[in-house]
Amino acid sequence: MSESKTHAIIISDLVKSFGERRALDGISLEVHRGELFCLLGPNGGGKSTLFRILATLSLPDSGTAKIAGHDVVSDAAAVRSRLGVVFQSPSLDGKLTILENLRCGGALYGLTGGELESRIIEATKALNLTDRLNDIVETLSGGLQRRAEIAKCLLIRPEVLLLDEPSTGLDPGARLDLWAALEKLRNEHNVTALCTTHLMEEAARADRVGIVSSGKLVALGTPDELTAAIGGDVISLGVSKETGADILAKLITSMTGIPATVVEGEVRIEHVEAYALAARLAGEFPKEITSLRIARPTLEDVFIARTGRLFADQDLEPDMNAPVKKKKH
Fold first, then answer.
1. What is the pLDDT of residue 319?
2. What is the pTM of this model?
3. Of the four listed, 36, 117, 222, 315, which is most buried by Cβ atoms within 10 Å?
């Protein structure tokens, strides 16, 4: 079976730079057909740059990206005809109803008459919007507006959905409803979706997750695979100023033979018998340790383990439309 039949998206060695800043640094990954895939990373990690290249809005410096078997550079028109894109900024007219927005959107896609009406019914049914068609968009909750945005994308029956931070600005309940809708599209309509996000709990619901940092793909797998690779629960130790985290980490490693790392002033240890180890450390270093936490590993712990730093905003990605400033000589 050919790759294009099993993979909806294939990215190979993708590089994109802005002046001396490398926003994407040789990223390669594949998204399977019918998969709900999350690209997780802090703001500035490279997600938006990759999203814009996949959406055919920007060109890579090198490497390739294919969607539904078509190259995003050399065959951009074919990619666009197979792609539904939901941006962070809303594209619906708030003064119109959902139905009026969908009819306008369908007309832009070249759909008319009975064909357009049947696709509107199909798309709104898939997203549980059938009874809200005559509601004015600006009166809807953020979650319903997001679902209406996705419904508009479904009018062309896309093979792949790209969603950029789809739950931005939504409350927790609306976020859950949105993800339930995406899961329904995957399960009942075999829609492939790639979402960018900086929310751990959102990525944990995906079939697979790719974690990006500083333009590199640092981890790839199912949420369970990634957290299981941590190798145990995570111990976080606050340290007295007199001792210092670096010194305590070296003492712990020397005493136990277990690697202890320093992240943002705290000592971190991953161990399968975390509670027994924590009790031992508390007894050995009662004055040096000021606080102690034990937690099951999360995707944030995966990020820390792969990058050595907390999941926090990096330098913001450059404006893709801004001209690159030339260096003065």
1. 46
2. 0.82
3. 36
Cα→Cα distances 77→55, 63, 68, 163, 308, Å = 11, 19, 12, 19, 41
Q: Which H or E run includes 119?
A: helix 113-126
Residue corresponding to tokens 């161990």: 271
CATH number for position 240:
3.30.70.790
Residue 171 neighbours by CB under 8 Å, 6+ apart: 142, 143
Give the phi and the psi of residue 307 in degrees, each rounded to 5.
Answer: -115, -20
Considering its fold, how many domains does the chain have in total?
Answer: 2
User: Closest Cα to residue 214, out of 325, 306, 321?
Assistant: 306
Give 133's contacts (C-beta < 8 A, 6+ positions apart). 97, 98, 99, 102, 120, 124
Decide: helix, strand or coil at residue 65.
strand
The token pair at 183 is 């899961």
- DSSP assignment string, 133-193: TTSBGGGS-HHHHHHHHHHHHHTT--SEEEEESTTTT--HHHHHHHHHHHHHHHHHH--EE
CATH code of the domain containing 108:
3.40.50.300
* pLDDT average per 10 residues of sequence, the chain (329 residues): 76 95 95 95 90 96 96 95 89 94 92 94 91 95 91 92 87 86 88 92 93 94 93 93 94 93 92 94 94 93 86 54 43
